[in-house]
Write a structure and sequence with these properties.
This protein is α+β, with helices and mostly antiparallel strands. The chain contains 16 helices and 38 strands.
Length: 800
């Protein structure tokens, strides 16, 4: 009886503690379940990429809220809860069709909740702190989880990073059958295909396609294209210009398709729509097919632009392109002059083989080996994993070798073991002194370890790509820093692209923030230099009523925590439970006319001696200046004329690349400086330069092997990311490029454009951090590598 009473007392005590520690935000019951929330595109999403969140129009709860009243709560790759505000930041009814916002998911089956702000609206404020985001004024509207990994053909599922993801607006053309088996019905295909059933599932912003590898469009999707709002068409067009990949069939139904999606004609430069009848013999030869095809009708593709993949003839025996790849901005659109979803191609046995060859390595099942087998020395299998490890190299952080730790353990065992016994028992003859010497030894060794782990503030290294002296110290400009902030560091990779051919621009800022002591911070990014000489601005929506139907910003930026659990970064999924840190927020703001959209992180908690990866991606528009074009003679890769630096900053270690030819430029090109006589400059094979290939006399050419475990050369890793396919991809590095494949500019080295590549001495973007224990923000010291890539037009001419 006494034992039962004791157990009852302990049970009641633990129940009281659990009740007292229950978060107040859970006091209000969720009013909807997973049926009220739709994630990604048709329920498909990817880890580490921005995923659209919307409430189903069938859910009664969606009719009771405005977008600005709701925040999306999920979990990042470090196990910390994060709250996202609506994106874009304008207020319309939830059931109007637009998504609520975008979140970056860090773990599989991460929790997902929609929280409604109180009447005071504090949770939607740009200055909201972590405590505001979890205030008792919130109401939980929806409580659910993201889908787990599975077969995308059977419903919502997580798409693995190593699996190509194709979004099909129309017939998938058999791509969903690649890698499947008629015997093993549960075997997943080698390509994940999302067959769009409704236009409501497509994103309204270009960031919603960030994890998609290719969008397939054909005449079977005309109904979906007609249902799409203008903002959804604009989002898909912007995604193409920002590095997306689109394959479109322009056969007999091309006039109807181009009428509802005129941006396709703009991307390929189709000014005059003409139709022809084509001989299918060249398609048969391309696939070595023994099946005869009948004549077909298709659009006449422009010949002067793009790279012809399959050439053919019309029924009048006039040469014409059948398949052409066009570069638009930083993306690629592949146009096919046939409706592969219609007769005679719908029953053609070699249709899938033809698509596979046209798409290159994307749909090549033979090259899809799941995880990388060429690199077994590291826990990661993606270049993004090597870059993250490189950015996490901080000289301030004291590294302890395994030999040192082993020595400490041996010394501890020796002191509390034989030495303690011989000295205390035998020599002094006082065994009770062991109660004093044992804790004394532990305290002394602990103090030694603490001294060894102190921040090395006096240690400053200067490597390649190191920022100038103002970014080495703790002061930049007029931003003050005290002694407490000396242990805060940030290493960054910045890639800024300017397309002066078709007016596209984008930037990537990847920051790894390290702190030696625990702190709570706000993180934001600000552009240091005004690039008004190459960027342009366009008015946003004219009125609030237009915001729901048009694409908003000209310059839109999204900052969010970067990284997820999985092989690309070397993480091992152990648990999806939260780590217990306070929830932090990702808040989005804009100017009055929605021309500039920015975001920042607020209330981010960092543990002692820890780092956090934050990424900011920006899309903007640039000016098109025909005076910057460079000429070349027909059938020649030698550029001629004058090269001008169009930026208001100097370029260091610049190189001009056309095709696979690199032109060696002066070490520094001043802002606005022109370099005449390009044909007289020294030229080199650019691939050899990137792979450091050199001639060894009779031994032939020798290429320096890539070291996946080398974390001391961020510039080299960045070059591999920027030209992954050009250097040989996985065959050279032994690593995949799935996470940041959009930033590979190998496809831009086309016939009508060239690339001016260089570094800037000053970072293009400044990382601003505000410690909650201080009154003013600061720019942390660290190593910043800032790369600029400028796409310039190349015109073919016979004149001198």
């Amino acid at each position: 009886m006494f034992t039962r009473s004791i157990c009852l007392v302990f049970a009641l005590a633990f129940a009281g503690i659990a009740f007292a520690q229950r978060p107040e935000t859970q006091s209000k019951r969720a009013v909807s379940d997973s049926q009220g929330v739709v994630v990604g595109i048709e329920g498909h999403y990817r880890l580490g990429h921005l995923t659209a969140i919307r409430m189903s129009s069938k859910d009664q709860a969606s009719k009771d809220w405005q977008r600005g009243q709701l925040r999306i709560v999920t979990r990042d790759g470090d196990g910390n809860d994060v709250s996202y505000s609506s994106y874009p930041p304008f207020d319309v009814a939830v059931d109007a069709g637009r998504e609520l916002g975008y979140v970056a998911v860090g773990v599989e089956a991460a929790p997902l909740a929609l929280h409604a702000a109180g009447s005071n609206g504090d949770s939607d404020s740009d200055e909201a702190s972590a405590s505001d985001l979890s205030s008792s004024a919130e109401q939980v509207v929806v409580q659910t989880r993201f889908p787990e990994a599975g077969n995308p053909l059977r419903g919502p599922a997580l798409i693995p990073s190593q699996t190509p993801w194709v979004v099909s607006i129309g017939d998938p053309l058999g791509i969903d059958k690649l890698g499947t088996s008629n015997v093993m019905v549960d075997k997943l295909g080698s390509v994940a295909v999302t067959n769009v059933q409704s236009a409501a599932s497509l994103p309204w912003s270009a960031v919603g396609y960030s994890g998609v590898d290719m969008v397939l469009i054909n005449s079977s999707g005309l109904g979906i294209l007609q249902q799409m709002k203008p903002a959804q068409h604009e989002a898909l067009f912007r995604w193409l210009g920002q590095g997306g990949r689109v394959m479109v069939c322009l056969g007999q139904y091309a006039p109807e398709l181009l009428k509802v999606a005129p941006w396709i004609g703009d991307a390929i430069g189709l000014s005059d729509l003409r139709m022809d009848r084509y001989d299918p013999a060249d398609f048969e030869s391309f696939t070595v097919s023994s099946t005869r095809l009948s004549e077909f009708q298709g659009v006449r593709l422009p010949k002067k632009r793009g790279r012809m993949l399959v050439s053919g003839k019309t029924t009048r025996r006039v040469s014409a392109p059948l398949v052409t790849s066009y570069v638009y901005g930083f993306g690629v659109l592949t146009a096919i002059t046939a409706d592969f979803d219609r007769a005679p191609f719908d029953t053609w046995p070699e249709r899938l083989q033809c698509l596979t060859r046209i798409s290159g390595d994307l749909l090549d099942v033979d090259n899809q080996d799941g995880l990388s087998k060429l690199n077994t020395s590291q826990s990661f299998d993606d270049l993004a994993g090597q870059m993250r490890s490189t950015l996490e190299q901080f000289p301030i952080k004291a590294s302890v070798s395994f030999a040192f730790l082993s020595l400490i353990v041996l010394v501890l065992v020796a002191l509390i073991g034989p030495l303690d016994y011989l000295l205390i028992n035998r020599f002094f003859g006082r065994p009770l002194l062991g109660w004093l010497t044992f804790p004394l030894v532990c305290v002394v060794l602990s103090g030694l370890l603490l001294f060894q782990a102190r921040p090395r503030l006096a240690t400053q290294t200067s490597g390649a790509g190191e920022s100038p002296s103002d970014n080495q110290g703790n002061v930049q400009g007029d931003i003050p820093v005290d002694a407490q902030s000396e242990s805060l560091r940030a290493n960054q990779l910045q890639i800024i692209d300017f397309d002066l051919v078709q007016g596209q621009g984008r930037s990537l800022v990847w920051s790894s923030i390290y702190t030696h002591q625990a702190r709570q911070i706000d993180v934001g990014f600000r552009q240091r230099v005004d690039y008004e000489t190459v960027t342009r601005s366009v008015s946003g929506p004219s009125s609030a009523s237009d915001q729901a139907d048009v694409a908003p910003a000209v310059a839109e930026s999204m900052a969010y925590p970067f990284g997820f659990v999985g092989r690309p970064f070397g993480g091992i999924p152990l648990s999806t439970d939260a780590i217990g840190f306070p929830r932090y927020g990702v808040n989005v703001s804009s100017d009055a006319d929605l021309r500039q959209i920015t975001s920042s992180l607020t209330g981010l908690v960092l543990a002692p001696r820890s780092s956090k990866s934050v990424i900011s991606q920006t899309a903007f528009q640039t000016k098109v200046d025909p005076s910057l074009e460079i000429t070349r003679r027909p059938q020649s890769e030698i550029l001629r004329g004058t090269l001008t630096n169009p930026l208001p900053v100097d370029l260091v270690d610049a190189v001009l690349v056309y095709g696979n030819v690199a032109y060696k430029l002066p070490t520094r090109i001043l802002a606005g400086q022109g370099i005449p006589g390009l044909e007289e400059l020294r030229r080199k094979n650019y691939r050899w330069q990137l792979t450091q290939q050199s001639s060894q006399g009779e031994e032939g050419m020798q290429t320096e092997a890539w070291k996946a475990g080398d974390f001391n050369h961020p510039t080299r890793v960045a070059e591999m990311l920027m030209f992954y396919d050009l250097i040989g991809g996985e065959l050279y590095t032994g690593l995949r490029d799935d996470v940041l494949s959009r930033w590979d500019a190998s496809s831009l080295l086309a016939g009508d454009r060239c690339l001016l590549i260089g570094r800037t001495e000053q970072p293009v973007y400044d990382l601003h951090i505000k410690d909650h224990s201080q009154s003013e923000s600061l720019i942390p010291a660290g190593q910043t590598n800032s790369f600029v890539r400028i796409v310039l037009p190349v015109r073919e001419t016979r004149l001198d």
